[in-house]
Amino acid sequence: MTATADTTAGPQSRLQTRNGIDFAVADLGLAEFGRKEIRLAQHEMPGLMELRREYAEARPLHGARIAGSLHMTVQTAVLIETLVSLGAEVRWVSCNIFSTQDHAAAATVLGPNGTPEEPQGVPVFAWKGETLEEYWWCTEQLFKFTDEQGNIVGPNMILDDGGDATLLVHKGVEYEKTGVVPTVEDEDLTVSDEYRIILDTLRRSLGEDPQRWTTVASDIRGVTEETTTGVHRLYQLAEQGLLLFPAINVNDSVTKSKFDNTYGIRHSLIDGLNRATDVLIGGKVALVCGFGDVGKGSAAALAGQGARVIVSEVDPICALQALLQGYQVARLEDVVDQADIIVTTTGNKDIVTVEAMARMKHQAIVANVGHFDNEIDVAGLGRYPGIRRLNIKPQVDEWVFPDGHSIILLSEGRLMNLGNATGHPSFVMSNSFSNQVIAQVELFTKYEEYNKDVYRLPKHLDEKVAKIHVLALGGELTKLTKDQAEYIGVDVEGPFKPEHYRY
Amino acid sequence: MTATADTTAGPQSRLQTRNGIDFAVADLGLAEFGRKEIRLAQHEMPGLMELRREYAEARPLHGARIAGSLHMTVQTAVLIETLVSLGAEVRWVSCNIFSTQDHAAAATVLGPNGTPEEPQGVPVFAWKGETLEEYWWCTEQLFKFTDEQGNIVGPNMILDDGGDATLLVHKGVEYEKTGVVPTVEDEDLTVSDEYRIILDTLRRSLGEDPQRWTTVASDIRGVTEETTTGVHRLYQLAEQGLLLFPAINVNDSVTKSKFDNTYGIRHSLIDGLNRATDVLIGGKVALVCGFGDVGKGSAAALAGQGARVIVSEVDPICALQALLQGYQVARLEDVVDQADIIVTTTGNKDIVTVEAMARMKHQAIVANVGHFDNEIDVAGLGRYPGIRRLNIKPQVDEWVFPDGHSIILLSEGRLMNLGNATGHPSFVMSNSFSNQVIAQVELFTKYEEYNKDVYRLPKHLDEKVAKIHVLALGGELTKLTKDQAEYIGVDVEGPFKPEHYRY
Amino acid sequence: MTATADTTAGPQSRLQTRNGIDFAVADLGLAEFGRKEIRLAQHEMPGLMELRREYAEARPLHGARIAGSLHMTVQTAVLIETLVSLGAEVRWVSCNIFSTQDHAAAATVLGPNGTPEEPQGVPVFAWKGETLEEYWWCTEQLFKFTDEQGNIVGPNMILDDGGDATLLVHKGVEYEKTGVVPTVEDEDLTVSDEYRIILDTLRRSLGEDPQRWTTVASDIRGVTEETTTGVHRLYQLAEQGLLLFPAINVNDSVTKSKFDNTYGIRHSLIDGLNRATDVLIGGKVALVCGFGDVGKGSAAALAGQGARVIVSEVDPICALQALLQGYQVARLEDVVDQADIIVTTTGNKDIVTVEAMARMKHQAIVANVGHFDNEIDVAGLGRYPGIRRLNIKPQVDEWVFPDGHSIILLSEGRLMNLGNATGHPSFVMSNSFSNQVIAQVELFTKYEEYNKDVYRLPKHLDEKVAKIHVLALGGELTKLTKDQAEYIGVDVEGPFKPEHYRY
Amino acid sequence: MTATADTTAGPQSRLQTRNGIDFAVADLGLAEFGRKEIRLAQHEMPGLMELRREYAEARPLHGARIAGSLHMTVQTAVLIETLVSLGAEVRWVSCNIFSTQDHAAAATVLGPNGTPEEPQGVPVFAWKGETLEEYWWCTEQLFKFTDEQGNIVGPNMILDDGGDATLLVHKGVEYEKTGVVPTVEDEDLTVSDEYRIILDTLRRSLGEDPQRWTTVASDIRGVTEETTTGVHRLYQLAEQGLLLFPAINVNDSVTKSKFDNTYGIRHSLIDGLNRATDVLIGGKVALVCGFGDVGKGSAAALAGQGARVIVSEVDPICALQALLQGYQVARLEDVVDQADIIVTTTGNKDIVTVEAMARMKHQAIVANVGHFDNEIDVAGLGRYPGIRRLNIKPQVDEWVFPDGHSIILLSEGRLMNLGNATGHPSFVMSNSFSNQVIAQVELFTKYEEYNKDVYRLPKHLDEKVAKIHVLALGGELTKLTKDQAEYIGVDVEGPFKPEHYRY
């Protein structure tokens, strides 16, 4: 037993080092179950497995030190394994305090052939239910690779989901340059609790090494970003001329946004409703707020189970699509008293107000698969005079209004497909994670061709990811003849569509 | 604390008596959670709640002593409450050794307002995972009501699912008349283990009271039977002139067979697949064996999630329905190597042989929602040379063939919608249980009008059950004018269709 | 040119005789187009073609003289050819004054290899747009076969649709026995115009031969009846002990009622709407009145084109099915002002009243696929004060209410899938017509085994018809092992289900 | 009668002038029927009608002289009326020699209140079945407006579909500048027959007025273009710096490309199949070549009728969409012998080769809804040794191969939704035509803000068009609060999505 648990107070008490691997996870004993699930998931992630085969010899990520911040789940474990098999060194954290699957984290630390005594995997710093202090401490650990001489060095690549790893570097550099990390008193603006913790983290780290973040940043060849929110931040940085390294926007690959959002939700919305409530969906009236990619998947799933779906929409183009697919389009306030199930998919806030909930049918189910928990006015619910909250089981609460009617709120208004079910299935994640791997290879090997700007993956790589998954599902692709390709003005190998094509 | 636990060996050690209620359940401490789920389920069982309202004053089951043998779940708890609210005394057991939900059993013993010290509910004898000895001991307890003088008396009604309570009475009477309960030596035929236990039970009970079962039988006004198997037994008894009291076949009410089987499975198949495997159903090839009511629901559910469904069928009429609904119809042996998900729905045996499983795709999922576990050759699988079984989690096993490919078998081949999910949702059960309540009232109050034969509920009662559930879903029914009713030769209040109408 | 046109006034002026074949059709010149369509239809009627092959040698209808009264369409032409190829002599009329396809009638007279000068086909007496006098004169011609000696003899089999041929025989025998055909003065009851014509027809025929109808009836081995209405009459006759020969009810074969009504309408409703109006169905609100077999097909068709379907229903069981399939269920009066398309499927009358039409949206489309034109109050529409009728094109009328809004009425309220499109497609008719052929063979060859009662075809023949069509669609049927068949208590060759099975 | 028919040979013999309106149509007698259909279509084109209301006072096209080249159908007639009601003077031709609906052309000339003697409508030069000479003569007439002084002047706006009107101007200017219209001998390249006719047309017109086309071009403020092909030409001209005036690409508005192609085809494919063949679609195997917008609509339509759909695709992203929606994806050559219906939707050529047709099932139906008739190798079919063509009815041919099997080819391989049915329904066209009107207003009133380049309509106008149609279908749009709009960074009135959003 070579483990050495840090005994100082705070998150670092979680830190262990065994067999040269440092990590902080809930329980290595969960690794065996994690290993089983990872093995099964590999088969459902043909994109990642194909990339392993394709790059088995070339190992294009040899020399890469990747700092990864993305939900530490079974699927992510397969992603991490893939990055390693392409030659990379990897350190990992979750990008959300609740989203770690502890068995996946444990198995990732252990590695396929490791033992609890001699783990052979990857340093992971993540457990389900971190505090915000713990979360940012974990994120900080991403930047502590060790070189062959045993010196601490930074990563040369970031793989980000939501942009927190990237944020830390950029803020670190910013304050390093201004010479001081602001304290709350320094700033006029109201600082959120979380931002205060980020500042504390940076202050401490710059206390240790005043050039820490410029050093880190100078090594980084680029970042590949998974989601809308993170991409939004990157575009803002680029516009302001503050982006420190090139970025690839993985989110807007077709095989990401049009598959994750629609087909992933089609699967996991139903799954979450069933696990949470066991209520028959057939015959019920379901109100789906929003008919974007997520709303389209939600409506399809509910209709596929025999519900009658009503859609509310702001955007008339999406509303017209809903109508032409046979859905009723109405305003929430006009139909909310008829709905048995209310699903928010908008990415906006205040979609389901407490006034709306006060008017709902008894035991109406309220669920969010959009973005943040402010799609539903959970805070307002708690403040409603005379309301009572009855917890039925984890992530399922009955809120009883003074008039006696109640609503069933799932996952406290947070993403219920993660909270009440297990999120997107492996096959869906295989698409977006394949884009991630390809983007990492692209930036790591060709970073000199990129400016400090935000790029999308070229369409032929999007098509490559799709092709692997088509073949995995048994689909057979037709091949253009040279003559046909010329006729429509494309290459026989693609890309097959203009950039603005909508799919 | 007035509980008195019987300390003799055997099942009776489970027996407790508190506040005049005898019972044997896993843990009364689970009652609170059970109570919550029952409360939520009430809203989803409008048929039962409407019958409570309708009969609130009349209490037509006043004087009824009902012996109930039917899966002791949350939904059944709502059924039991309903029978009680209509005036009945009730005793209850599960009709399957695994199907009891312990929290539902506990809450039923406690009753809505009882406490663990002073339960006010119903005697339940059921826990998850009974042995067969325990099961038949429990069933025997059904027949021990107490009259006002404190004497043990039998029930005057049976509510049965599968016919085990009815079997015990009929076999008891048979052996009482022959004067001896056979032992294995008495009989030429091979006696199954379970039947041996039934004989032991009867021998013991007749040892206590040699006229026990004729006494019991003479009090019974009738039985209402829930399922195909039990109904089959009843018709056999009736044909042989051995049926001891009238029976109502609830199974073949339209609101039972065409709703349970199709819409219940449409819900719970998906649910079971998701909880067991988290595998994306969309894009997969699903082979559904059988296109009867259950197969129709299965295919709809899988297609609704974006799977490509292939149907195998024996009956050309059902096969033609499958084709005209857009499904491919093929023989299992011709397509089993293309399928990702294989679902049996036939009620027959040897549908998926071990040879078929040997030819399946790697990690193909094999699931049964038909009837018994012999639809899939689980026994053959265990005997396959060189095969290994890896348990992934409860009710999910990976069986690895010597060539390295594996299949994922759910619930060991037993009904996976019960084993991997929670069975039919409340709303679906509200339909069949409403038929049960109506049938109990009918037979209890009008038993003199019935012969010792098997009856179906008249169509107007089937329509009544449907009507309650239509209104609960917000549907509005059209009313025939007198003129219109005459024109098509029906009554304005129905029934609206001839007996042979197929829906 | 050997044709001899009867020059006397009345229908007989239509009568021609060429090459020993007597007939009365619109124009033999249409035969070539009819021939093409018949040839194409043969391929879509695999049931009939398979029966031709199966019985090619046995020719079990040799000696049969079949009087057929059924819409003289292309599909019926293939039926007639089939009966002939099985050995029968055939005479034919349409069972509806509008339903004859003149090119089909012409081609049937000509036969596959005939010429206008030397037709080699079947005597047909039918044209589009007969008067009622003509209609009954045609029907009378059914009974005038010629034997080898050139004597007029009656048929020995009837193939009926709606029962008019059967009616004529029964009424003829009735009045022959009473010795007088009543005139209007003889009877108290109000006699409809059509019945007056029937009486005239019988009076004339009995004038020619006073034993005509008892002679005819005595030869007839049985009748096979296609539809609900005809079957209803037969059951009435049987109950009154008046049925003169055995009857087979083809209508209630599963391969008739569950296929024709549902899948036939799913096809032809859409077809009729499109040909009549060219209005986009997607996005529209469609109200389907009735959710029986026809309503189920209608709703599926409209939803399949992207309409939002609302169902109105009287029968709560059917209403519950509609709800569980995701349709809204409402009363016509509550939603009629929201609907763009209103379809009646009930077989009842006064479903869409003129008051309802007065409240409809501008240019709402009103269409009937139920039964008679009284489902929609067309008569009331004509009497509405100030209403104007604008004919748009044949079978499409715009009725403009005084307030300026209009409705589009299709086919004057009669069956619009026939009036605005071409009725059920060949493949659907192949199912019911195969039942007809099988029923003819059964009754003709085994008539001695039947009493003067109404029979349904045994289930194994229903399954046989289904099997042929399954194979024609490329479906492959699974075969039960002997062991499996015993396990579920059926024969390996079927029938596979109990009589009361609902499919 | 003031009509003066030009008696010279050639197309000009069609030319008439009555009541100051010159025109060339098939038969003014068809105007009454055309008028009825236009009136009904108005209600189905709410976008156009709303624009009439909105601009009733402003009449923003006052002063516009629009040369329109777009299929002269009933829907186009409503478009023309709309342009006129906004103040424009209009001259019109069809952009396809077969696509004119003669009754629509006649009614457009007549105008709503005109008479054959005194038409009050618009000069139309179009009839069904023009020769190519006639076609280009008609197109030339577009450019002959008359000013108040009676002088011939050119248009100041073009509304184009396919770009032929724009082509004539550009080629005219080109040759005017080079000083000579080339003859075949002048050019090395092979000149198509059609191009030869264009050159003849230009030569004749420049013979009449050597500055004709520079004069015309100098007046034109811009062109709005309807389709892919025309847009493609415009982008080429713009890239080469040859574009003579600004252009708006209407084709790539979402409310055009994602609605026309998908929902229009979903309607009209089924319609064409039914009118052409009456074959039951349910139960059949349908191969859809291509899964772009048109393929998606085709597959939905066929599946909605109960066909089993197989998709062939080149583009793996579209193929993956097909799989995840439950369709089989295969290569044509692997499944063509299983398909009953083959539909091409690709816009490419040689999709269905004669070799493929030689291997098809007997009576397989081959239909194109893609683009040109070269999607199917019709020419190769005609050259196949021993093949016979049997015309069944207009636009329906049976081609019989020497081995006896035949295929049914619709519309000779041209767009069968136009050839066998009536094309896109009015409601769909209302979307694209509303974009046209808006684009005309935009360019006519703000042409000075535009360069000689190709523009897409701004998203808020796309959303405006959608909104009108949402409301027309009874949909109710939700309104963002100011707070919500800020939260997602949009204006409360939209546009609601970034440019790259895919819908």
TrEMBL record, chains A, B, C, D:
EC number per UniProt: 3.13.2.1
Provenance organism: Pseudonocardia xinjiangensis
Compartment list: Cytoplasm
First-tier enzyme category under EC: hydrolase
Catalysed reactions listed for this entry: S-adenosyl-L-homocysteine + H2O = L-homocysteine + adenosine
Keywords: Cytoplasm, Hydrolase, NAD, One-carbon metabolism
Cofactor binding summary note: Binds 1 NAD(+) per subunit.
Residues engaged in binding substrate: T73, D161, E226, K256, D260
Functional description taken from the UniProt entry: May play a key role in the regulation of the intracellular concentration of adenosylhomocysteine.
Protein name: Adenosylhomocysteinase
Major localisation: cytoplasm
